[in-house]
Design brief:
The chain has 159 residues and is α+β, with helices and mostly antiparallel strands. It contains 6 helices and 4 strands, in the order H-E-E-H-E-E-H-H-H-H. The protein has one domain: Endonuclease I-creI (Roll), CATH 3.10.28.10. It has a 4-stranded antiparallel beta sheet with strand order 1-2-4-3. Helix 3 runs antiparallel to helix 4 and helix 4 packs antiparallel against helix 5.
């Protein structure tokens, strides 16, 4: 996973604290047995004129993909249970402002990577819903946040 000195990890954690987001989402899917899946994401944002910083982060972490948005911003996204878990493990000692979200996403990524081949039971799904709510409550979002009942409904769980 690239060259990861403590200084580099501290810089990346600071960048994440300021210009990044941590997401745990439930996504609908058309294929497979399960019609839903959980998605873990670390995302860094930067004005496209300064996207070199995102390329450097991608080099250091050795993972992720960049895309330019129409609004002049570039995103670096990292998805995947194990990748998110491992990266957060490296960054957690240095994260300050998004510590609560990072700890919650790390727990979720660990649960999901440990159960990647198995079906998640309702207790585990409820634990993941609670972690979504922790992350949502700490994140700034412009869209309406889903309630626990709405998330349970998506998963077909009863409260």
């Amino acid at each position: 996973m690239g060259s990861r000195s403590k200084t580099n990890l501290a810089y990346i954690a600071g960048f994440l604290d300021g210009d990044g987001s941590l997401m745990l989402q439930i996504k609908k899917r058309k294929d497979g047995r399960s019609k839903i899946r959980f998605m873990t994401t670390i995302c860094f944002y930067q004005d496209t004129r300064h996207a070199k910083t995102l390329n450097w982060i991608r080099e250091v972490l050795g993972i992720g993909y960049s895309s330019e948005r129409k609004d002049g911003m570039t995103e670096l996204r990292i998805n995947g249970y194990q990748q998110v878990r491992d990266i957060l493990e490296s960054l957690l000692p240095f994260i300050r402002f998004k510590k609560i979200q990072a700890v919650a996403l790390h727990k979720a990524a660990k649960i999901l990577s440990d159960n990647a081949r198995n079906t998640l039971d309702s207790k585990t799904q409820k634990t993941l819903v609670n972690l979504i709510l922790v992350i949502q409550s700490e994140n700034y979002v412009t869209k309406k946040k889903k309630t626990k009942a709405e998330l349970y409904e998506v998963l077909g769980l009863t409260p």
